[in-house]
Design a protein that fits this description.
The structure holds two protein chains of two kinds. Chain A is an alpha/beta fold. Chain A is built from 13 helices and ten strands. Chain A has a single domain, classed as Homocysteine-binding-like domain (TIM Barrel, Alpha-Beta Barrel), CATH 3.20.20. In chain A, helix 4 packs across helix 6, helix 6 runs parallel beside helix 7 and helix 7 crosses helix 8. Chain A starts with a helix and ends in a 25-residue tail after the last helix. The chains are: A alpha/beta, B alpha/beta.
Chain lengths: 336, 234
């Protein structure tokens, strides 16, 4: 049987994903510091409302409430033994919402980072990382996820470990990294580096790209960096609705629905096929993005100037792909 | 390049050359070479505090600047900090013995619910690299743990880190509790983490938001300098 996302990618020129999970759950009463994944069991009605908010606003695909649902993360809440169960339930609730949508909607099983640094730099071995991701993958698959979706990754080693785990679970997947440090991931990976890495993976993702990061201008520069490499695999752009501010005791992201609509159309022009929001993106944003995408005809690749004029300036001068980034200093022992 | 570059004999370098070489070796994250360099300088009767400031802190400042400027990234900084730590193992007991001046003391930890400690660890290492004493509370700290450690350690600075949208509001819980207990002004509060920004830091009542570990060190130094200036004379 063909995967539902594969079919949708073949039929559609763009696919709209969902928006924020964490910030939306906050607005429903989640306390800071509590595990959102426990709500899959304690407040399934609110998780249904979260998913339905995106679907009703026009999302073609949404991520399950399982971002922190791996053993490494759940340990913090004494729930490390429940990774498979909590992930399964997040997908089960999602399956129900998607099947009632009356149109094809993809349930993507969210898999977030372990939070650990991988060996040799850190403690987490490849084998253990694969095991942690595999356990969560099996849960999401059992719950009925159409695809798995690893997100907000900074280290290539962790991305590759997730890919291997998804092969063990025998399920199609997508994957995004977060480019939040001078246009690169925290570990220094550029958009071009990611394309090279993704194209070498044995069980390649159905789509790859960027999520979260800093603001919509930066993520589009990253998408331009992806498409400049002419990858055969479709590109994902899932950016935050502006930057977070603290207003009246609540976190508020300052990107308006209008701004996110412009971002969505520019993302198409930059070469992304799967487009959506991340932190701070509400159903209002998604509705506006859907409307904008429906009336948008793909235009020429925008220049960086156009992006900056439309959405605001970049967080750094270079993203490391243009040869303009400063290079590390030469030291006497270094041979290059 | 010529072979001789592979054969730098640290013990044959003059003091000045050795210090510069140690800056390079920190930059390249060469732990054994840093340990060796520290021992050579101590053998040449350098005061431990001078080894710390001129060889290690100065070298880590270069690393910190290039990290701040997006030239080095987390992997390189972790290696450099690891090398620094190697040198500190020898120096630390000697510094205490010789009564070297203290830069200041910082209590640091990720907030309740947040396990992401990469940034926090970097700040801790860079602060140590700058000569601060760092009390690391690890991950997932409720407000009580922060307050208990601040008072127990007689600390100057509180550093809080959060990487998630779902955990960053907890920083405000900690600061609000400090205000309630009337101890907010006793400490410098620095906050950091990928989703934060300067305005957010101000809104929750922190003294400063620090974009990265290098900025944290500079900010802490600035606040400590001000604090010392405000101390009554004598």
């Amino acid at each position: 049987m063909t995967n539902a996302l594969k079919r949708m990618l073949a039929e559609r020129s763009w696919i709209l994903t969902d928006g924020a999970t964490g910030t939306t759950l906050f607005n429903m009463g989640l306390s800071s510091g509590d595990a959102p994944e426990l709500w899959n069991v304690e407040h399934p009605d609110k998780i249904t409302a979260l998913y339905k908010g995106a679907v009703d606003a026009g999302s073609d695909l949404f991520l399950t409430n399982s971002f922190g649902g791996n053993g490494a993360r759940l340990k913090l809440h004494g729930a490390e033994k429940r990774a498979r169960e909590l992930s399964r339930i997040s997908a089960e609730i999602g399956r129900e919402v998607a099947d009632r949508a009356g149109r094809p909607v993809i349930v993507a099983g969210s898999v977030g980072p372990t939070g650990e640094i991988m060996a040799p730099l850190g403690e987490l071995t490849h084998e253990l990382a694969v095991e942690i991701f595999h356990e969560q993958a099996e849960g999401l698959k059992e719950g009925g996820a159409d695809v798995l979706w690893v997100e907000t990754i900074s280290a290539p080693e962790e991305f590759i470990a997730a890919a291997e785990a998804f092969a063990l679970a025998d399920i199609d997947w997508c994957g995004t990294m977060s480019f939040d440090t001078a246009g690169r991931t925290m570990m220094g990976i550029t958009s071009a580096d990611m394309v090279k890495m993704v194209e070498k993976i044995k069980n390649p993702p159905l789509a790859f790209g960027a999520n979260c990061g800093v603001g919509s201008s930066d993520i589009l520069r990253t998408v331009l960096g992806f498409s400049a490499q002419a990858p055969e695999i479709p590109i994902i752009s899932k950016g935050n609705a502006g930057i977070p501010k603290f207003v009246d005791g609540h976190i508020h992201y300052d990107g308006t629905p209008e701004l996110m609509s412009q971002y969505a159309c520019l993302a198409v022009d930059c070469g992304a096929q799967i487009i959506g929001g991340c932190c701070g993106t509400t159903p209002d944003h998604l509705r506006a993005m859907r409307r904008a995408l429906e009336s948008h005809t793909k235009g020429a690749r925008p220049t960086l100037d156009t992006i900056a004029q439309t959405l605001g300036s970049f967080s750094s001068v270079s993203d490391g792909t243009d040869g303009a980034a400063p290079s590390p200093r030469r030291t006497r022992r270094r041979k290059d | 390049m010529s072979d001789e570059e592979d054969d730098i004999i640290l013990a044959e370098l003059s003091d000045d050359e050795l210090v510069l070489q140690m800056h390079d070796d920190l930059y390249d994250g060469m732990k054994e070479e840093i340990e060796e360099g520290v021992n050579i300088l101590l053998g040449r009767k350098w005061q431990p505090y001078r080894v710390l400031t001129e060889a290690l802190v100065a070298g880590m400042t270069i690393v910190g600047n290039d990290f701040r400027d997006g030239i080095l990234f987390v992997p390189e900084v972790l290696l450099a900090a690891g090398a620094m730590k190697g040198g500190m193992e020898t120096l630390k007991p000697l510094l205490i013995e010789s009564g070297a001046p203290r830069m200041g003391k910082m209590v640091i930890g990720t907030v309740k619910g947040d396990i992401h400690d990469i940034g926090k660890n970097l700040v801790g290492m860079m602060m140590e690299g700058a000569g601060f004493e760092v009390i690391d509370l690890g991950i997932n700290n409720p407000v009580e743990d922060y307050l208990e450690a601040l008072s127990r350690e007689d600390a100057d600075i509180l550093g809080m880190s959060a990487l998630l949208t779902t955990t960053m509001p907890y920083m405000k819980v900690v600061i609000d509790t400090m205000i309630e207990q009337g101890i907010r002004e006793d400490y410098i509060v620095l906050v950091g983490g990928a989703p934060l920004n300067e305005e957010f830091g101000k809104a929750i009542g922190a003294d400063s938001y620090c974009r990265d570990a290098a900025v944290a060190v500079e900010t802490a130094k600035g606040f400590m300098a001000n604090k010392h200036n405000q101390l009554p004379a004598g």
